[in-house]
Please model this.
Amino acid sequence: MSRVFVSIVLGVCVLALAVSDASAIPAFARKYDMSCSTCHHPAPRLKPYGDEFAGNGFVLADKEAPRAFRETGDDDLMLLREIPFAIRLEGYGRWQSHPSGKTDMQWPYLVKLLSGGQIARDISYYFYFFFGERGEVAGLEDAFVMFNNVFKSELDVYVGQFQVSDPLFKRELRLTLEDYQIYRIKPGLTSANLTYDRGLMLTYGFPTGTDLVLEVLNGAGIGSADLARNFDRDKYKNTAFRVSQDLGEHARLGGFVYWGREASLDLTNSLWIAGPDLTVSVDNVDLNVQYLERRDDNPYFLAVGHQLKSRGAFAELTITPGGDKGRWYATGLYNWVDSEQDALDYQTVTGHVGHLLARNFRIVAELTHDVKAKESKFSVGFVSAF
Model:
């Protein structure tokens, strides 16, 4: 490892120690005067209480915060005293085995502005804007309005842009730099995958621990509108459905299916994606597993189509030895994609260790080995939110 990279490592550690007494907290914790650890450990990873909070429209059912709203004298107006904002800031130093042990200082790696809260009773919003992501202004990604407890039932409705895979495993909440690769693949010239899209999402939970999710999507991602101000590039809409069931207190089993059609120059591609997922949580150990098959019947939009098969999986294991109050954690992630389009083939093994210097500031180290390319990359850095 070069002297330059050793300097990067030491620089990160010194910076992290310098802010170990930081007391700033993100918007929701600030609103309720509660620690970030109430909903996260470590942030941004959600605990069950945090999942419940998000599913309730970013409102704590057992702790109202009337001071957050102005007294307008109008029972039909809930006006926030202040628009809640938070900032997420990340930076890394990276060493890559190829080419020739290259080192790189990647801070800031991202700067993100987040906001969310109530617009009205049972109506909430959430969005974040990338001031910078990998050196570019990325713009809006998550941005939606949520209608909570529609018809005074367990039905929630989301309208906006979000990740298709959110009902499975949320990419934005992972602890690793390494991504969930099977959600990202786009065979051929297709636009549809399981990352960001615009549409509707309906969720319903039963007392039996059964959850249902239905998504209706453009299938075109979240790119800019065309000259006619349309976001969708064809007349078709894609649909996704998921059902999951709690298996006792420590496990959840789910099944997911996505089907749709895309058009380009009067030629179409029909596709489906399907597979199971499993979560097991025992004490301070959490295991997430996802497997998916994908079929595209004409991904290159040719006059004579040719089916293309892809499949993949990931397994993620997270250990938090000290529980909610612990400062150390470790995550392992295995990614695998096998496709008839060879460029999509992917296989990596990742090890990640983090230490919380404060509830909203952690230093991290991550090593990812690319099995197919026989290359490795090692990153150290910081993740903060305030």
Summary: The chain is about 10% helix and 50% strand. The CA atoms of residues 171 and 180 lie 7 Å apart.
